[in-house]
Amino acid sequence: MIRIPIRQSILVVIFSLVVVRMVPACANPDLSGHVSDFRASQVSRVEALLRFGDANNLCFGIEYVDSALLRERVEINVQSGTVEDAVKSIMDGSIRVSIKVVDGVVEVGPLISNPSKIKIFDHVLPVFQSKRGSLQEISNLLRMDLVVDLNPDITGFAGHYPTGDRKDQVGPFLENKRSVRYLLNALLVQSKARAWISCVDWRHLENIDALRTRPVWTFVEPGTHGVSDYSSDLASIATAVESSVSPN
Amino acid sequence: MLRFSTYLYLAAFLFLVQCHGSDLRAQEATVDGSSAEQRPSRHAQQVKVFEQHAPFWTSEPGWDTKLELRNNLAARSIVVAAHLHLSSGKEIVLNQITIDPYAALSLSINELLQEKAPELIGQPDSYGSVSLRFASFSPMNLYATVIPTASRQPISFRIPARARSIDLDTLSDVNETLDGIWWKARTGLKDLLVVSNGADAEVEGTISLFDAEGKMWNESLLLKSYQMVRMNVMDLLHESGLTGNYGGIRLQFVSRGSSVSVVHLMYDETGKFSSSLDLTRHSSNTNDLPDVASESGAWTARAPMLALRDPDPSLGLPADTTLQPSVFFRNTTVRFVTAHVSIKWRSDSQKGEVTLPPLNLQPLSTQQLEIWVMQDHLHIPANAHWALVSFTANASPQEIVATASSRNCTGEYGVETSFATGQGGSHYAGGQWVSDASHNQIAAFTNVGSAPSEVLLTLHYKGGLQKYELQQTIAPNDQLWVNLTQLLGSHTPDRNGNFLPSDAKSFTYDVEEMEPKSNSLIASDLNIDSAAALVIPNCPFCCGITLTSPEWDPDPVDVLISTFDGVSIVGNNGCSNAPTVITTTFTTWSSSNSNVAAVTKAQVQGVSPGNAIGTAQGLVNGPGQCACSPHTVQVSVPINVGPYKIEPISTIEQGAAVCPTGQQGWSRMVTDQLQFANGAGYLHAGIVVADTLTIGSTNQIGLPPGVYQTGSYPTDSNGSWPDSYFVCTKSCPVPGYTNALQTWTYNSLPLGHANSIVYKCTSITIDGF
Question: I need a surface site. Which of A193, B83, B686, B727 has the fewest CB within 10 A?
Answer without folding.
Answer: B686
